[in-house]
Automatic annotation (TrEMBL):
It comes from the Bacteria. Keywords: Oxidoreductase. GO terms for molecular function: oxidoreductase activity. Its EC number is 1.-.-.-. The keyword Hydrolase does not apply. This is Oxygenase MpaB family protein. Residues 60-279 form the ER-bound oxygenase mpaB/mpaB'/Rubber oxygenase catalytic domain. InterPro entries: MPAB/Lcp_cat_dom. The keyword Oxidoreductase applies.
Amino acid sequence: MVDLSSRLPAVVTDRLAALRSQVGSAVFSRVAGDEGRGRRNRILGADGPRWFAEDAAIKRVHGDASMFVGGLRALLLQSLHPLAMAGVAGHSGFRGDPWGRLQRTSYFLAATTFGPATEAERVIARITRAHASVRGVAPDGRPYSASDPHLLRWVHVAEIDSFLAAHDRYGSRPLDDAGRDAYVADTAFVARKLGVPDPPETVAELAAQIEAYRPELAGTPEARDAARFLLWEPPLPLTARVPYGVLAAASVGLLPRWARLPLRLPWLPVTEATVVRAGGNLITAGIRWVTSAPRDPSPPPMPPVHP
């Protein structure tokens, strides 16, 4: 890539650097919250063994800006399970406190992927305790529990399928077939810690498990309401609506066709292969640029997935 900064006047490069730092700090603050700096130190600055090696596939995927696209896709896909959606609607506070949910989930992903094993175990224990209190009755009369192993596995497979799809399309260094299988196996290690039974270990197993869940999925009013909120009513200032709209379009563009009709989302293959894909490349490149500024060497912040 040509270094354009060497061809620009110093005043222009200085302003670009200031803008990059300012936007990067805003993204970090929004995603990581007020405790972001301290949490980052607990992840990157702490000594001790990690769950994953430096060259692990999970670190490549979870450290890439494509996670922003994958996270939004994961939320849409997860909402199609009526019991999982009932738990989100009743307990997650995604409408009242969407940024708090984002910050908690980003820390879970960062701690388990990049942090020391002791911190990863602590975060897993906290989530397990939180899940124990998430229970109730869905609008269709069926009881649900966030600790239900079957629901835990649905949340997991929808999540990693989305992260992998986004990384395949928009990642800076997409994985080969062996690397994609390695990513699924890495995430299975974390899933077992959360109590997920028989998580997939390969891409083929992942596809088979998602297919097995399809008869249980449906576009409930709660799921469609969540999709409207996530895609068209996000709690963002007007200045952020356009880039977020591009991000949302890229996320919808990665959903399989069978997942769109229940959520009343469009299927526009030509537009998605051209305009949406170009926009997705642009928005992820922009996020990657601002979050990789020299002043902030932490991995990019992660989007929400868990209820």
